[in-house]
Amino acid sequence: MLLYAISRWKVSKANAKKHLEMINRVSEWVKQNRKKCHFERSIYCLLKTEDPSGETWMNIDEYKDRESYEEFTKTFQRSNSDYAGLFKIEEEVISLLVPDSLTREVYIEKAELSV
Asked: How many CB atoms lie within 10 A of CB 66?
């Protein structure tokens, strides 16, 4: 049973270039610290749109099960120095977002309905 942690947010065109640089830094941190991350894979998506004012992004972290997700949420805390570098980057990313545009949801796969 897979679990997906999904985040969506918006970035203004004025912040788009800096935002992309910061998302690249997040990805590099994860690549260099892969053992600290409990997800199977993480992807970023950009919504295809004609909106001239900004961009809509999505991140999907895929976990093999609920237990691996819960283990990660226990360890992925600001008080855990193992993640200090990532939290520092995340703060800068969040400062670039359109206010109140960040949403986070968790979905559990219904394997019996997969085709």
From this structure: 13
Residues in contact with 21: Cβ distance below 8 Å, sequence separation at least 6, in sequence order:
none
Q: In whole angstroms, give the CA distance from residue 22 to residue 6.
A: 18
Query: What residues in the chain have per-residue pLDDT under 50?
Result: none
Domain chopping of the chain, boundaries:
3-110
pLDDT value for 101? 98
CATH topology (fold) of 3-110 = Alpha-Beta Plaits (3.30.70)
Residues in the chain: 115
As a whole number of angstroms, the distance between CA 56 and CA 69 comes to 25
The rounded distance, in Å, linking the Cα atoms of 28 and 30 is: 5
